[in-house]
Specification:
Elements: E1 6-8, E2 18-26, E3 35-41, E4 53-54, E5 66-74, E6 77-85, E7 95-101, E8 112-119, E9 125-130, E10 139-148, E11 151-161, H1 164-171, H2 180-193, H3 195-199, E12 214-216, E13 223-225, H4 245-253, H5 295-312, H6 314-321, E14 330-335, E15 350-356, E16 359-367, H7 376-389, E17 393-398, E18 422-427, H8 428-442, H9 447-461, H10 477-485, H11 494-518, E19 522-524, H12 534-548, E20 550-557, E21 564-569, E22 574-582, H13 589-599, E23 608-613, E24 618-623, H14 624-627, E25 643-653, H15 665-679, H16 691-702
Parallel strand pairs: 16-17, 17-18
Antiparallel strand pairs: 1-11, 2-6, 2-8, 3-4, 3-7, 5-6, 7-10, 8-9, 10-11, 12-13, 14-15, 15-16, 19-20, 20-21, 21-22, 22-25, 23-24, 23-25
Helix pairs in contact: 2-16, 5-6, 5-9, 6-8, 8-9, 8-11, 11-12
């Protein structure tokens, strides 16, 4: 589409009762990002109340009409997806505005391939609009959905706001707080707290996001709305990323007034002291695993456990099904259903049915556990059954992780059928991630739901459940390692491509696990210069693996000063985790070095620190143990070369096995990333560009 064009959704697809809107962009550095937001507008072009403004701290509408699904990796970066159930949009809403905003002084002109795409309930792409002239603006309206003649249309907008999200929201009637006293108090608090005040990545759940006008409740709950006086709007008064839990505590304690939002339940991270007489006593579990003897038992139990919890915990089920086009409504789930198919009936592992306004949405579910692979002919049969019976989707659920452009199973879809059936895939790791995010970080509506999810998570993480996520680097792992050792692996070898694909699956799972623990967005970085076609990109990485014997990936974690890199050198058997910390804008190099070493007081002594110089080759380096008494050793001897930053690295032996055993490669990568984040990255300062937003959030929280 071109700017200003519009189209009726019904002209593009017969299945637009719900749609998925994706906002995407690519960053040349891998670090550029933005936050999406949605505004529901009435006939006057204004929000009916501040509750019609949705962003990361207020992501879900109670009626299911809007749900921010978060980021998902794409070929050239990441995409933010939003689910709209257009049948549930209140009658008083005439337009839905979809926008995104950047942090601080950053602009959209620094990003590449800024775009919005829209897909129907079956996942079929319907339209794409590229925002080519965003420039230096901090916020952009990508597009809007609006009612016309009893249906919905989409308009490509591409309008920028130099005043950022605050100016955009104000134009549409959202109240923005502008309290100079609060801002002054924020600066005072930041100074008093010293480095701790600046270490946060942004306002945590349980803060008022300055410039948003939305008051979030205690940690993990959706935002309730607090009307505040309108006034001049600061340019950078936008909602900032959430803080890690520990960094948010000081901010929350300064709150002067009680929150207006209903309290949500989150379970404590630490287990209470047990009342058992000794360690041999086992806690009674809702979903026991001791009786599981075969793969069939594990599949049946895992399917029944998951589907039963989904039917009882709507917050959780919406997380899993909204992206598949399912509406918000009354859900029922079934297992071992018999459906006719030719001469013999088929028995999918499960069925999900959602009723809304007298209409049914149905999906067949096929699960595998313990690393068992999907069978193409079985999935094909379920696709055919779903098409004949008017079902909307087939959902596969395994330990494997699907990659963009590389389906787990190849099925034929009859395009001549009027009724479309979508094929979706979930990994058990994704299910565990969503459960952990809700019960540990975001919260649920009542304690019973939180307890049910906790029992589900305990079941999935038990070694006997078979639901452990991606756990095998494949049959090519050993031959590729041997070929690298004896230098017989040639470019174009299909086995190297298989290893690269499985490495990408492993990295995506590492992101899910770390993100679930931290309650933050963790995503693999795909740099624009590596191309946009996933297959071609993987083939280039496979050829590079044959040449230098290395696998490498980059992770972007909210609130960290840079991109975390993970490298596996198959020749030396070493894993390297590293992050580049940019030099401060002000001060003296010796002060930078001393501050860095002081911040890393609790980091491992074998941490390698290297000074990065401006175009002058490698700089001074050493282990933290050697540098602690003499931080000046990090400075170049000539004293004139400009320091651009510092590179922090940890090295670890990698597992030799291809599996997830204690000595396996997968376990070693997971452990290396976890250790590096918890012992090194967590001690570093937040990106300088986001500190002002962090102070503003602290001020707003202190003001109540």
């Amino acid at each position: 589409m071109v700017k200003g064009a519009n189209v009726a959704l019904a002209d593009l697809s017969d299945d637009v009762g719900s749609v998925i809107v994706s906002l995407g962009w690519a960053s040349p550095t891998g670090e550029g990002d933005a936050d999406v937001s949605v505004l529901l507008l009435d006939v006057n072009g204004k929000v009916r109340s501040d509750g019609d403004f949705y962003f990361y701290n207020h992501p879900v509408a109670a009626d299911g009409s809007v749900q921010l699904l978060g980021k998902t990796p794409a070929a050239d970066g990441s995409e933010d997806r939003i689910s709209f159930d257009l049948t549930a949009v209140p009658g008083g809403v005439e337009r839905i505005v979809v926008a995104a905003s950047r942090y601080g002084d950053a602009g959209f002109g620094e990003l590449d391939d800024v775009r919005i795409t829209l897909a129907d309930a079956a996942g079929e792409p319907l339209l794409r609009f590229a925002v080519d002239d965003a420039g230096a603006v901090a916020a952009v309206i990508f597009g809007e959905l609006y009612r016309r003649g009893g249906g919905w249309k989409f308009r490509a907008v591409g309008q920028g706001y130099a005043t950022g999200l605050a100016g955009l929201a104000t134009d549409f009637g959202v109240d923005i707080e502008d309290d100079a006293a609060a801002e002054a108090q924020a600066d005072a608090d930041a100074e008093a707290a010293g480095a701790e005040a600046e270490a946060g990545a942004g306002g945590g759940a349980g803060t008022v996001a300055a410039g948003s006008g939305v008051l979030a409740g205690p940690e993990g709950q959706s935002g309730a709305v607090a009307p505040v006086p309108a006034g001049p709007v600061p340019v950078d008064a936008v909602p900032a990323p959430r803080r890690p839990d520990g960094q948010a505590e000081a901010v929350k304690k300064r709150a002067a007034r009680p929150r207006t939002a209903k309290k949500k339940v989150t379970l404590p991270a630490t287990v209470k002291k047990t009342l058992a007489e000794n360690d041999s006593w086992k806690t009674a579990r809702l979903f026991p695993v001791s009786a599981l003897k075969s793969d069939r038992d594990r599949e049946m139990r895992a399917t029944s456990v998951l589907l039963s919890v989904m039917a009882q915990v709507p917050e959780f089920s919406r997380r899993l099904t909204a992206a598949f086009g399912a509406p918000a409504g009354r859900m029922e789930t079934f297992t071992e259903v018999s459906l006719p198919h030719g001469d013999s009936p088929r028995r999918p592992d499960g069925v999900i049915r959602v009723e809304r306004a007298g209409k049914l949405w149905t999906a067949l579910v096929e699960t595998k556990t313990n690393g068992n692979a999907l069978k193409a002919e079985q999935v094909q049969a379920y696709m055919d059954i779903a098409a004949r019976r008017g079902y909307e989707a087939v959902i596969t659920l395994t330990n494997d992780v699907a990659l963009e452009g590389s389906p787990l199973v190849d099925v034929k879809i009859d395009r001549r059928r009027k009724h479309k059936v979508a094929l979706w895939h979930l990994s058990w790791a994704e299910v565990a991630h969503q459960a952990q995010m809700l019960i540990r970080h975001e919260g649920l509506g009542n304690a019973a739901h939180a307890w049910l999810l906790q029992e589900l998570l305990h079941y999935l993480q038990h070694e006997n459940s078979g639901c452990h996520g991606f756990q095998n680097m494949g049959p090519s792992w050993v031959p590729v390692r041997n070929g690298i050792d004896d230098e017989t692996l040639c470019q174009g070898d299909a086995r190297a491509l298989e290893v690269v694909e499985n490495w990408e699956r492993l990295i995506r799972q590492v992101c899910l696990r770390l993100g679930g623990e931290l309650g933050q967005k963790v995503l693999p970085v795909q740099r624009a210069r590596r191309g946009t076609d996933p297959k071609e990109r993987r083939e280039r990485l496979a050829d590079q693996l044959c040449l230098d014997g290395r696998l490498q990936a980059e992770l972007r974690i909210d609130g960290t000063p840079g991109v975390l890199t993970v490298g596996a050198d198959l020749r030396t058997g070493k894993l390297r985790t590293a992050i580049d910390v940019p030099a401060p804008d002000q001060g003296y190099p010796l002060s930078w070095a001393k501050r860095l070493v002081r911040r890393l007081e609790q980091a491992p002594a074998d941490l390698h620190v290297e000074t990065l110089l401006d175009g002058a080759g490698p700089g001074p380096r050493g282990t933290l143990e050697r540098l602690r008494p003499e931080p000046a050793d990090l400075l170049p001897k000539d004293g004139a070369t400009q320091i651009t930053g510092f590179r922090l690295s940890l090295f670890k032996g990698m597992g030799s096995g291809r599996g997830n055993a204690e000595t396996g490669f997968i376990r070693s990568v997971d452990d290396a990333v976890h250790r590096f984040y918890t012992t090194v990255v967590v001690h570093l300062d937040a990106p300088a560009g986001r500190r002002r937003a962090a102070r503003q959030n602290a001020a707003a929280s202190a003001a109540g």
